[in-house]
Structures are given as C-alpha cells and as structure tokens.
User: What shape does this take?
Amino acid sequence: MSFPRIRPFTSGPSTTFLWLFVVALLLTVSGTTKKHAVSSLVVRTAYAPFYTLNDAIGKLATVYRENNELLARVVKLSAENARFAEAARENRRLRALLGFRNRSQFRVIPAEVVGSPSVPVRGTIWISAGPGEMAQVGAPVVTPAGLVGNVAEISGGLAVVRSLWNRECRVAGLDSRSRAAGIVQWAAGPYLRFNYVPIDGDVAIGDTIISSGWGERYPEGLPVGEVREVEVDSTEFFLTISVDPFVRFEALEEVFVIDAPADSTTTEAGQ
Assistant: This one.
C-alpha cells in the first residue's frame, strides 16, 4: 500500500503568488484599520532594504562632506603654521642683525638683498637701502656671519656689491691663530683661496681667516672663512689653501654696509 508523497514547503513563484493571494484576501475581508495595519506591514517589509540603502548613502555623503571640511582645515592650519615658523625665523634673524648693529664699532647701514645672478655666475649682488643712505663706493658689506664683499657701484638707493666670489674682490687676510698673512681671492671651484702664504707658513685645517685691515679697505677682524684644505708642494713657493666662507651667499636677505672712510681709487689687496 502506497501513500501519496507530501512535498515539503518550498519557496518559489507559486509560493509568492500564494502569499500575495492570502494578503489580498485578508485585505478584502478585513476592516479599514486592519487593512491599514497590513498595508503598512507589507510596505515596511518590501521597502526596508531601500530605506536602509538610502540611509547608508546619506551617512556616506555626510562623512564625505565632513572629511572634505577637515581636510580644508588641515591645509589652512598647515599654511598658518608655515607662516608662524617663517615669522619666528625672521624674528631671530632680525634680532641677530640688530645685535650686530649695536655691537659694531662702525656706523653700519642696513640694506636688503634684492637680487643676484644664479650660480655659477655668483660674483655680484644687488642691494637696496633708503634714499641717501647708501655708503660710498668701496665700502665693505657684511653680515653677522662675516664679510660679503664691497660696494662696486651706486645708483640712488641701489648698489651693486662685488662679493667674495668675484675674481676682482681681493681681501688682505690673516690666520687668526698663527697670524700668517695672505690674500683671499676666488679663482675657481667651491672654495676661496688664501694665496701668497709661504711654504713654511703656519696654517692648519679649521683655522679662521679674518681681514687684516691692511690697505684700509676692510676693517681689521672681519670674519672671512674657515680653512678646509692645506696642500704643500715642495716645488712651489706658497701653500695652496682653500677657505670656505662663513657667509652663505645663497641665503642672503639682509646685509650691512660699513660706512667707513675708503678711497675707492686706491688699488689694494682688498679691491
């Protein structure tokens, strides 16, 4: 004896149709209140995923907008921080300049660097001072770090400075330790040369070279640079000495012109 097989309840198009038929029948025989309740339940069930998706999209849009606002604030704060850092550096630099001016035994005229040729043509610098403030041709130009060069030409409040990197700029110098004398001049390469020091002269790496004051162009004691190399050649009469200047010419912004008497027509080892 065989019994009819009872098929398990499965979902499918027929099941969906059956449920829809049942819901429709209930809505037909039910009262208005129940109809509204059932309708609300069906709508909430059918549209729930769309509500969830819409809510998620709204939250993502909010997060995106807030992220952009935060990014804009970060950029603004970074710019403000950079301005504050630059202001602090400028304040320290100006304090150093003011201190140098107050310590100087000469009358010094502050001037602003307004231009210079790019490397390797780096022997000339243009500076600007107030009207009538520029000193005479030949006046030394310095910073708190050391000697820059001398004034070569003047036009109104502008002046052309012949720097240590100019072949025509020569400075009578001394080794501050041994007092060995020579002439500082640039010829080629990354360093200045301390020339005409006898082969038996006492100059060592690390020594400081200063202006000697001979020739009355540059006052005595202006820092020039540090000895980096000393070469001895027994076939030569003089040492080959390389000097790294103290002034960083690529970063010059302000300088001082020393208003000291100087004869611009005098030919000396500091022209």
Remarks:
- The radius of gyration is 42 Å.
